[in-house]
Amino acid sequence: MTAPQNRGFVEPGHGSGLLDVGRRRYLLSLLVRKEVQVRYRGSVLGWLWSYVKPTFQFLVFFLALGVFLQQNRNMESYPIYLFSGLIVINLFNEAFGNGTRSIVDNGALIKKIYLPREMFPVSSTIVAFVNFLPQLVVTLIVCLLVGWHPEPTQILGLVLGMLIVIVLSTGLGMLFGAANVSFRDSQNFVELIALVATWASPVLYPWTTVRKVLPDWLLQIYLVNPLTTAVELFHAGLWFPTTSETADLPPDLLLKGGLALVIAVIVLLLGQLVFRRLEGRFAQDL
């Protein structure tokens, strides 16, 4: 008698990680829809919060830096420079923070059924990207009103910058999200990282101010930071075309963007590795 065939069956609780997320796109869309509905449940403004929060953030920084510290006089089109950097860092902070909390927040679902757990940080990144799009549209409209005339390479830089942030925040969200199940201090570390990320990238100030105080070798490390590169790619695509093109951008920006994407992919693979090692304890620790 031949052994029974088990072709088509898989061992429960085991999968292919992020590949399974791609194979279950319908389930991923349901999670994204659920997160969006929960976020704005009972809210009067609803989706308008996607505009209100960044607008207030922009006004605070613009008054403090643009008016009081006179950056608006020292830099051409400083409001566009400021907002194009803020929307990038907001995308990273929201995707990273939500991804870190995603496993714990969906603990009840994880304990009931098995599904690829990577779906939760991935869906958090998608929700953050959905909230990022209205901010990007507003920025593009303002840029068009002041004479935005980008070149194809600058448009490519915008796409590359978004891809860097999405891949990086997903990898970090998986890494810290897995650790957060057993060590809830991870959320506090993420808040500190988000605070540092805002000031460690040229969002509120030009990168040339860093060049003046850092030695060249340390400046290169600063520029290789994926967030710094993503922010500067957005400056190159949105702010630079609205200036008289005398503004100073980091050299070889697209090349640095490719390197930053490689670093982001490495972080994603590391996050997937740690996630797979720890996910067996999720139901127990939750």
From TrEMBL:
A GO biological-process term: lipopolysaccharide transport
Record domain ABC transmembrane type-2: where: 45-278
Topology of this chain in the membrane: Multi-pass membrane protein
One GO MF term: ABC-type transporter activity
Location(s) in or outside the cell: Cell inner membrane; Cell membrane
Sequence intervals crossing the membrane: 48-69, 78-96, 126-148, 155-177, 189-207, 219-241, 253-275
GO cellular component annotations of the record: plasma membrane
Keyword terms of this UniProt record: Cell inner membrane, Cell membrane, Membrane, Transmembrane, Transmembrane helix, Transport
Pfam families xref list: ABC2_membrane
Family per similarity comment: Belongs to the ABC-2 integral membrane protein family.
Protein name, as recorded: Transport permease protein
